[in-house]
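Hey L., structure's done. Input below.
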Amino acid sequence: MILEHIDGPADLRTLSADELEVLAAEIRQFIVDAVTTTGGHLGSNLGVVELTLALHRTFDSPRDVILWDTGHQAYVHKLVTGRRQDFPRLRQAGGLSGYPNRSESEHDWVENSHASAILSYAHGLASAFELQGSPRRVVAVVGDGALTGGMAYEALNNLGHSGKPVLIILNDNGRSYAPTVSRLSSSLTHLRLNPTYLQARQRIRTLIRDLPAVGDLAYSSVHGLTSAVREVVTPHTFFEALGVRYAGPIDGHDIAELELALSRAAEWDGPILLHVMTQKGRGYAPAEEDDIQRLHDVKVSPVGDTGVKVSPVGDTGARVSPVGDTGARVSPVGDTGARVSPVGDTGALPPLAGARDRLPPIPPVTYTDAFTRALLAQAEADPRIVAITAAMPGPTGLLPFEARFPDRFVDVGIAEQHAVTAAAGMAMGGLKPVVAVYSTFFSRAFDQANLDVGLHDARVVFVLDRAGITGDDGPSHHGVLDMVLGLSIPGMTVFAPSSAPEVEAMLDQALTLDGPAMIRFPKTPAPAVAEGAVGSGMSARRLREGDGSVCLLAVGKLVAAALEAADELAREGVEVTVWDVRVVSPPDPELLADAARHRHVITAEDGMRQGGAGMFLADALAAVVRDQNDLNGVAGPTVDVLGIPRRFIAQGKPDAILAALGLDGPGLARSVRRALETDTAATATPDPLRVD
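Output:
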């Protein structure tokens, strides 16, 4: 068998046309045998055999990046990149993944296989290579329904606008975009990809346009005629209207034709889409005849001790929106207290300082200003830093960055999902992307932050402006979910600055990390702090040391309220400990150890209480207390978690809303008094770490 001698893509390049045809048949039989034994995606992989062979014969993976959308169509890719021996344990615990997996092979770049995301990765990687002057190619295989997802069009729009050199392979297997095919359209495809034709066409157009008196009219007529002919014999010009050159359709089972088209398309210096027609399930009659996709994902059920039985019960029909699971949804159970309906000032805060051509000659007065200055300073020192936003360069403080580093600035439009996944691609390509969006819009891209960034441990820094209660814009704009979402992503470092100088310190630290980070700050003005009163690294700051009764763990903006409460209580003879948490995740061990020695701990944040920073810290504190109990039987403190209740809150002045929620200085002081009232006697022993 030829397949037994294929251990890497280089082995494919020595094969003749006849040998490739034999190999394709062997691969199909191998996949049928493997999938009907272990379960897996059958039809889509049988359809991309020739396409995969042509890709690996044309491009030099992994130097050239081959990306797979809906990664369940990558079995052939796995076979020809040295994983044949692992297929007996396909999709089994400890065995071969059913999707691309970076731990398996250097040929796998992306392992999240939610549909419609791969073009955003491709945009990010191509941007990274271009910025660094690398000639590496980026090839993205989409299809199998992926172009019915909106995120793919966010990426197409941005690819066309940016002109990044990405080769898009549209695998049209009847489950996605499906225009007609004819001999004329096939011939025209080869003509439009021919470099000689392209050069000649441009020369002719130039000559026509230069004709005296009639040049422009003649040019328009010729251009209109060629466009009309193209409209008749090829799919409509949707892709080219987006700035992505279109070529196709071509036969996706003709290796020679595929290789010719791929090699010519690779010479195009911008985004180009090659439309490839394939047959899902090709070579296996049950899959070829499966009109309702029962053999899309084959399920295998063990039967006694006699082996396995194929039970292709999988999908019961084509999906209209194959966007996959969007991750665990947060359904917190919040405070049952009275509803807050403050009536506040409807005027906007003064506009943020800064302009496209210069920095404001005044000290930072908002967190946003501090971020602008800090990012510019970091970018001056490190050319790998790029800034990304979603249609809000002004409010997020990125206009000065755009003016100073236009080649390192990306505004994707209202497309947060694409922004985050493109940032993941940039990080994979060696850049240090900083994504600046409003806190409330971060939730639009949680799936991408979780799986495209978090799962890949990508070095992306999220800067979330307008975090917490924003005030005038009401329920849709309060940024109260960011910490809940960020803390639920494994490996995400979460920073919460309490002053403008803290933003600079935290951005500096975030850019040194080996994984993702999030810095969140409010819209309101930043408190003034004394010189040197700024934290560093991953450490919290103890601002006041109390008498061991109550410890206040304040997050971000609420540090000022905690200090105000401490001053009020001190006048009553009560000394409380106050910590500026600074880094919510991972929490500072010194903070936890100190909090554990108090009778009561109160956490305060301007984010959602359920699943937020306070509950995260309470869990970490519980682990410390358990360790102490194991050592010496010490009982832990009670913990009261204060934050935004689980309800939609109307517009109003931020300070008024926080006061109504008990999250200002007087409100925190009242919470301390209530905690102390539970100390009914010196002999009373508090329950170990009761969370109220």
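The longest helix spans residues 17-38. Confidence is low (pLDDT under 50) at residues 176-188, 228-234, 301-361.

-- N.
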